[in-house]
Design a protein that fits this description.
Blueprint (H helix, E strand, L loop, with lengths): L20 E7 L9 H9 L2 E4 L1 H4 L9 E4 L8 H7 L4 E7 L7 H11 L6 E3 L4 H9 L7 E4 L17 E5 L5 H11 L6 E6 L7 E6 L12 E6 L29 H11 L6 E5 L5 H8 L5 E6 L2 H13 L6 E4 L14 E4 L8 H8 L5 E6 L2 H14 L2 E5 L2 E6 L2 E6 L3 E7 L7
Helix pairs in contact: 7-8
């Protein structure tokens, strides 16, 4: 067996609180035999080995470093744990590929934040790679959803007819949880395959459908393969803004479908951006902002506690349970929120100081969109339009309805919409 040389430390001294060297090694269910020579060398050379107990148990006695099990919760413990072993050679164990929903991200972020050299990452094939190999699924065409430390509702946004999804399980109960969610969302006919201990001696696959799933909890290390099949009577949700109004639980305070689509177009969500949805109502704007991309984030601010609870339910039902809901009246409730990339104001425009607070919170290049149906708020938006520019439009929608034995048009209340991008150095 060849011995790999120790990775050189990048230029620049490491902080006194940082490890002398830091490696992150991916390991699978196949344990020590599945590791590369470079990974084995890093583990043998380490003075401190950090990992989950099951990972540490996979190492032979030849790995003589001090063994430290991760505490729970894990992420907040990373800075203190690395600092506790300053100036020592530290090796962190991770499941599979450390940089794919793994601890590698936290370790790298911590090293960067501390001004330390980046760790050396030695990946192992991920459970997703193993699963696609077993199933014959092209990885690039397969959706991946993790439920490790996340609510099951996040799976909903990925459910579309004939799509293939790999769900990273959080424990032995995850397959049953996934099956229950699929049934509740109208995807009971979907085929499920639970792949356990991928790459190890105890690997096995359990097959069934969501509507008939009755398997007992199995191995905690599992990936659930879902072949989506929608029931004939189930509603269909697309990926573009403008979901059917019936998709939402609401009390009438809902930005209607066609106006909602135009509003999301003006807000122009992009990956990683944060939206303030002020006067959330039923949360439809924030929900569809987050559905635009998995990295989009949103805060919905709603003063009515019952509506705030309804927003959270809509977010979970439509696949974006990470939507943050703040119960309180704006502008006071906006204090302390992270700076937005875009702001939507759907209610309370005439509250003193509200538009000023939203405008001041936006960085240069940030977008603000406001909708109204009242003359008083329209006059306010016209004043802002005169001062800072942007685009002022009126949206009118009519629906065909029965008129006796014929059909006519019923006009909805027209909506005045102001949208603007904040220029550098501009003041209202």
């Amino acid at each position: 067996m060849s011995s790999a040389p120790r990775a050189p430390i990048p230029d620049g001294p490491a902080p006194e609180t940082a490890p002398a060297s830091l490696s992150v090694v991916g390991i699978g269910a196949d344990g020590w035999p599945g590791l590369t020579d470079a990974a084995r060398h890093a583990l043998r050379d380490a003075e401190v080995l950090i990992g989950a107990p099951r990972q540490l148990d996979l190492l032979p006695d030849g790995c003589a470093g001090e063994r430290v099990a991760w505490p729970s919760p894990l992420r907040p413990a990373v800075p203190a744990l690395l600092a506790a072993h300053a100036r020592r050679r530290v090796c962190v164990l991770a499941s599979g590929d450390p940089m794919f929903y793994g601890i590698g991200r936290a370790v790298c972020e911590e090293a960067e934040g501390a001004g330390a050299p980046p760790p050396r990452v030695l990946p192992h094939p991920s459970s997703v790679s193993y699963a696609c190999a077993r199933l014959g699924w092209p990885l690039e065409d397969t959706e991946v959803v993790t439920l490790v430390g996340r609510p099951a509702g996040g799976l909903t946004a990925a459910l579309h007819q004939h799509r293939r999804i790999l769900v990273l399980g959080a424990g032995p109960a995850t397959p049953a949880e996934v099956a229950a969610l699929l049934r509740a969302r109208g995807y009971g006919p979907s085929r499920l395959r639970v792949l356990e201990q991928l790459g190890g001696e105890r690997e096995r696959t359990v097959t069934g459908t969501a509507e008939t799933w009755a398997e007992p909890p199995g191995d905690p290390l599992n990936v659930i393969a879902v072949e989506c099949r929608r029931a004939a009577d189930a509603g269909r949700l697309g990926v573009t803004p403008g979901l059917p109004d019936s998709a939402y639980e609401h009390d009438g305070q809902l930005t209607k479908r066609h106006v909602r689509a135009a509003t999301l177009s003006a807000l122009a969500p992009a990956p990683g951006e944060l939206l303030w949805d002020v006067g959330g109502g039923s949360g439809s704007i924030a929900v569809e902002w987050m559905r635009a991309h998995r990295a989009c984030r949103a805060v919905s601010v709603e003063r009515d506690p019952l509506r705030a609870e309804r927003i959270a339910r809509n977010a979970d039902a439509l696949g974006v349970p990470a939507l943050r809901v703040v119960t309180g009246a704006a502008p006071a409730a906006l204090a302390g929120l992270p700076a937005p990339d875009a702001v939507f104001v759907g209610g309370g425009l005439t509250v003193p100081g509200l538009l000023e607070a939203c405008w001041d919170a936006l960085p240069p290049g940030g977008r603000l969109v406001a909708n109204t149906v009242t003359l008083e708020s329209e006059a306010l938006l016209a004043g802002w339009y005169g001062r800072v520019g942007g685009e002022l439009v009126r949206l009118a929608v009519a629906h065909a309805v029965p008129v006796g034995g014929f059909t006519g048009w019923r006009q909805a209340m027209p909506v005045t919409q102001w949208s603007v991008t904040k220029p550098a150095g501009d003041q209202a």
